[in-house]
């Protein structure tokens, strides 16, 4: 059992993304993004105007790091070519504010808000978008590179490609497996080109952020060591390659998983994967960002048709499990984070990691005397214990960035989903710290958890029921 303290210099922070908090979508020369047309963001958190107050909140919380994203269409309204200096000015003001508050900025270059102009030219399924992305990375680094030392290229390319181009539930709402695979490859290529551009421009640390939903059977949710039938093992491996291997292997080993290539080929052909691309994609990564929310629970089910989110998933059934869930209905399985970090450490032993997102939406109890979100406190606490277990085993996890600082715009789900440790009243834009923010401040201050036991049933107690 771990003592509950984290390594020296462990980085505590919070994460957000541009489209989810900034608002001001038509201000100071920003061009439209694919999300403007897809969901009406209104003012979001009006962070574009309220960033000094938001930075003050971070300072009050005592966090060392803030991961935000840069809006591509704010910097390049047409996606390429003309630079909108007013857009860069905003990020410069934000970064300066952070630095003077003692908060280290971590910049993500792409958190899903593709300039609409590039979508009009074919979007990520077109190779040219990858080249434009590298140019954009250069432009942003040129302005901020003297002050921002940690850069993430992409956030969750799987989500952007497969929910955006494959299943059509995210912008730009296209529904084609071929487009999704082509988009994924071009995002990887864009990552590689941008990473090498950042590196040659002198960036200190370059990383990428992937979404991880450890794939397990219902039996493994309660007993991670459970042996699988051949059929279930195959179902797990196929989904794992699609969601994780498709990105991890090219980025970290310069290759695609063999079996996945067959799926890609039958959906999209392989003409878009050119000689030399994988070498470009496999840039050394200083930091792999790990976003973890929930596992994917599957088992083999002969005859089951493919899920549109997961091309080639015929014969795989996505299951619900009798664990506690968040308001989104996502199963709460902290132990899956330990399993995930153990696996990454085993397969990519030299790779430094950072938890770049973890958190949950719950229905908070809003009262005059405070905002009570005991479920969120329990969620984060249990995940931090799961992280400690992995750290004790030697996982190279350098920090934990909680999603999210603010209640914000949850993409296609709108404003009803609350992931913040700070409550936002969208009518007045008033911010109020939730109990979880006060609790997180103590964790950060102590660099560790108290002695309190988690309040929610753990994996073990679920198994025992
Ligand atoms: C993150 O994505 C985002 O980076 C962030 O912007 C967002 O606000 C946050 O999480 C909270 O959602 O088969 O369609 O049900 C999380 C992405 C969520 C990806 C769940 C896959 C299930 C796929 N993941 N999801 S689906």
From TrEMBL:
Enzyme class at the top of the EC tree: hydrolase
EC number of the protein: 3.2.1.21
Reaction(s) this enzyme catalyzes, per UniProt: Hydrolysis of terminal, non-reducing beta-D-glucosyl residues with release of beta-D-glucose
Key words of the record: Carbohydrate metabolism, Cellulose degradation, Glycosidase, Hydrolase, Polysaccharide degradation
Molecular-function annotations in GO: beta-glucosidase activity
Keyword Magnesium: no
Similarity comment: family membership: Belongs to the glycosyl hydrolase 1 family.
Name this protein carries in UniProt: Beta-glucosidase
Organism: Nonomuraea harbinensis
Lineage summary: Bacteria, Bacillati, Actinomycetota, Actinomycetes, Streptosporangiales
Parent-protein residues present: 1 to 465 of 780
């Amino acid at each position: 059992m771990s003592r509950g303290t984290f390594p020296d210099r462990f980085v505590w922070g919070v994460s957000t993304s541009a489209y989810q908090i900034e608002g001001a979508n038509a201000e100071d020369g920003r061009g439209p993004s694919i999300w403007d047309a897809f969901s009406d963001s209104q003012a979001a958190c009006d962070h574009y105007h309220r960033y000094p107050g938001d930075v003050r909140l971070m300072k009050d919380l005592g966090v060392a790091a803030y991961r935000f994203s840069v809006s591509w269409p704010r910097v390049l309204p047409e996606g390429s070519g003309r630079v909108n200096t007013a857009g860069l000015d905003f990020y410069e003001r934000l970064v300066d504010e952070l630095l003077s508050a003692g908060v280290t900025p971590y910049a993500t270059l792409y958190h899903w808000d593709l300039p609409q102009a590039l979508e009009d030219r074919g979007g990520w399924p077109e190779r040219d978008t990858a080249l434009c992305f590298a140019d954009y990375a250069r432009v942003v680094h040129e302005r901020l590179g003297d002050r921002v030392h940690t850069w993430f290229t992409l956030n969750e390319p799987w989500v952007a490609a497969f929910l955006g181009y494959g299943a059509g539930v995210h912008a730009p709402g296209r529904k084609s497996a071929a487009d999704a695979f082509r988009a994924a490859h071009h995002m990887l290529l864009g990552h590689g080109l941008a990473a090498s551009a950042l590196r040659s421009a002198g960036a200190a640390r370059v990383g990428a952020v992937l979404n991880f939903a450890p794939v397990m059977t219902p039996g493994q949710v309660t007993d991670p060591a459970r042996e699988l039938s051949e059929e279930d093992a195959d179902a797990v491996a196929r989904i794992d390659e699609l969601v994780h291997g498709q990105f991890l292997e090219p980025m970290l080993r310069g290759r695609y998983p063999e079996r996945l290539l067959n799926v890609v080929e039958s959906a999209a052909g392989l003409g878009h994967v050119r000689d030399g691309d994988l070498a470009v994609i496999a840039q050394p990564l200083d930091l792999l960002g790990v976003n973890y929310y929930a596992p994917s629970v599957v088992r083999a089910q002969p005859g089951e048709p493919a899920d549109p989110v997961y091309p080639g998933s015929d014969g795989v059934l996505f299951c619900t499990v009798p664990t506690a869930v968040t308001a989104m209905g996502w199963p709460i399985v902290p132990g899956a984070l330990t399993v995930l970090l153990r696996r990454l450490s085993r397969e990519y032993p030299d790779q430094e990691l950072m938890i770049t997102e973890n958190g949950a939406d719950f229905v908070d109890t809003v009262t005059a005397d405070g905002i009570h979100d005991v479920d969120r406190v329990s969620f984060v606490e249990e995940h931090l214990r799961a992280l400690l277990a992995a750290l004790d085993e030697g996982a190279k996890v350098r920090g934990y960035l909680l999603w999210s600082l603010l209640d914000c715009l949850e993409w296609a789900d709108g404003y009803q989903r609350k992931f913040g440790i700070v409550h936002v009243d969208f009518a007045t834009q008033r911010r109020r710290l939730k109990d979880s923010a006060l609790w997180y401040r103590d964790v950060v201050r102590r660099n560790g958890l108290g002695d309190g036991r988690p309040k929610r049933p753990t994996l073990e107690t679920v198994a025992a029921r």
